[in-house]
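for the writeup, i need someone to sanity check this before i put it in the appendix. the sequnce is what the collaborator sent (i think, or maybe the updated version? ugh). structure was predicted straight from it, no edits. if anything looks off just tell me and ill rerun, i have time this weekend
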Amino acid sequence: MFSSGWRRGTMVGLAAAGAAVVIGAGTLGVTWANTAAQARPAAAVAAPRQQPAAHVVARQGSGAQQAAAPPTRAAQATAPRTAGSAAVPWRSVGPGWVLDTYSAGTRARQAPTTLYLVSPGGAKYPLLTWPVSATPAPTIEAWAGDKTEALFALHSANGQPGGYGELNLTTGKMTRVAFASAATTPVGYTLPSGAQILGGTQSGQSTTIARYTQSGALVKALVTSGQGLGASYSPDGAKLAVPALGGLLLVSNAGGVLRKLPVAGAGARTLCEPVRWWNATTVLASCGRLWLVPASGARPSALTPVRNPAKPPNDYGDLDAWQLPSGLYLQSAGACGTLELNRQAANGSITKVTVPGMTDSPVVVTAYGAQLLIGQLGCEGSGGQLAWFNPATGAEHWLFRTGAGPSAVAYNSLENGDIQ
């Protein structure tokens, strides 16, 4: 998503609450749009050396979907670079599937980083492994709707930004996304197949949001705004919501503002940011609290009340929301830059939800059925846990229990949030 959950909108919310936040490189959110197909880039990226991951599928209990059978030992022994991806049931990939980079290393002891594709049932498909190197492994930014392309932030040997690349998940080939301006930041793929990239270019106090080819060439400037980089596409990709004071702007995918979407209860001087589309006709927006804003221009309704952080359970602001069969769950800002998971009752009151094994900033990656996929941000991004969690029953299905910081992106779903 472009501005959802643990994303730019979250940064604004935490800053407004006076929270100190420490984040790793490549913390971006994703939403998608529908546009015409573009040619694939051809230039190879100078990225960290890659090794084919072991051709192994690890089953961990039962889940919403069953995984394909693991390959034979002979196939493992003779598998080429793309051995891991060859076993993936690509046609089954959809909501509930996750791309995750994982390392068993620690800050004191480095280890290789592996890119996994994980099914809702917990089957892990290792696609690619980056060996230990002075150059940090790439960071996942977005996952295209075609299922086999993913956008990564690249890093230099000193950990500084090194541009962006697109990884073909079936071949392991990384190609450069070369924007004309160094001020351009990619913020997601387009729907339904990821044919283009949406990016924002900052110039002074203004940001121009535009569509680009996958090689980074400008296709169409959509809108220039002085209110930040956030943007969230409608499910059909025909329009997007962008930040504005006192509401949102509804912008055409062909370019230009369609209409203003005022949020009267937010105040004319309050910055509203789109979190994501709640459904096909309504935007979930953050304007001091969470609002449901009809794209038609009809009157918005508050989803969450104004919180008083001085009163228990000390909610410093609600950042995202997921409606599950068991209730409405919120990603909220806690004290000192932490994140919390809360459940909101019908009267607007909240109860903190404890995720066993994740006491340091549990972050919702995605919602699927009655479950939430939870990652732990940890101290300076050091947490590596990732688990499916049913907040109604407390049941957990662990994908990773230890390791280096999570970098997880869920497959295209308007009901999902994401972290990196």
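Residues 1-83, 416-420 have pLDDT under 50 and may be disordered. The CA atoms of residues 309 and 315 lie 5 Å apart.
thx in advance!!
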